[in-house]
Amino acid sequence: YKVMIQAEQMSSPPSAIYTHDIGGPKTFVIAKQHDIPISSMLHSSQNGVEYKKKRDTGAIPIIIFNVRRDVRDTTASNLRKNPQQTNVVQIAKTNITYYSDWAPVADYEWVYEDYKKNPIEVTKKMQDVLGDINLNEERLMYVVHKAETIKDLAPETLKNVEPFTRLKSEHITNNGKIQAYRDILTDEQIELLENTFGDWLKEKDYME
């Protein structure tokens, strides 16, 4: 059984981050959501249902991790990387749309805040979803350590590993702190986001 996305099926540039045989027949090719072929993107609930049917029957053998994070933090991160942007509502809307599009077909919802609180527990759940992986806790701690310290690599080294990690120095804007949005968002912007997306923030327990 192979979990594989062929490079020629992907949007340009090819998006395979990492391919690894894990002691057996299963092969993983990891790709970001916007790297999946356009025909596979989810633009409606009906598309999502059809996509899931194909995926479950093996026609599209992909395991999907859907990432969720406080939209105030994701908006702040975007502004740190792109300070010329000013429309915080549009930034937040785009992030929520990406999340919502993939939610119906995700195998696992990877919650950023849960990972930061207990990375080993979340990583255990990830390997359970992937299957055929049974790293012990010591090995998982090593994996988490490597992931958490990649941001400390020298710029040239980070550039060299980018084809495998898809991580650039500008992606790391505040060392991954939770609820650090007040460092860059004004009180007015925070109020605007909370008024506009309050239902989503409350539903996901980011607001009372």
Describe this structure in words.
Strand 1 (19-21) and strand 2 form a beta hairpin. With 208 residues, the protein is mainly alpha-helical. The chain starts with 18 loop residues before the first strand and ends in a 5-residue tail after the last helix. The protein is 46% helix and 7% strand. Mean pLDDT is 75; it is low at 1-25 and 37-45. It has helices spanning 45-56, 71-81, 88-102, 112-117, 119-130, 137-149, 155-165, 187-196, 198-203; strands at residues 19-21, 27-29, 65-68, 108-111. The strands form two sheets. Strands 1-2 form a two-stranded antiparallel sheet. It has a two-stranded parallel sheet with strand order 3-4. Helix 2 crosses helix 3. It has nine helices and four strands, in the order E-E-H-E-H-H-E-H-H-H-H-H-H.
Short description:
The chain is mostly helical and 208 residues long. The protein contains nine helices and four strands, in the order ββαβααβαααααα. The termini are far apart.
Give the percentage of residues in beta strands: 5-15%
The portion of residues assigned to helices is 40-55%
What Rg do the Cα atoms give? 18 Å
Overall geometry: globular
Instruction: Determine the mean pLDDT.
Output: 75
**Structural class by secondary-structure content:** mainly alpha
Treating each run of at least 4 consecutive H or I residues as one helix, how many helices? 9
The total beta strand count reads 4
Give the topology string: H per helix, E per strand: EEHEHHEHHHHHH
Strand numbers in spatial order across the main sheet = 1-2
Head-to-tail CA distance between termini: 44 Å
Largest sheet, described in full?
2 strands, antiparallel
Low-confidence stretches: 1-25, 37-45
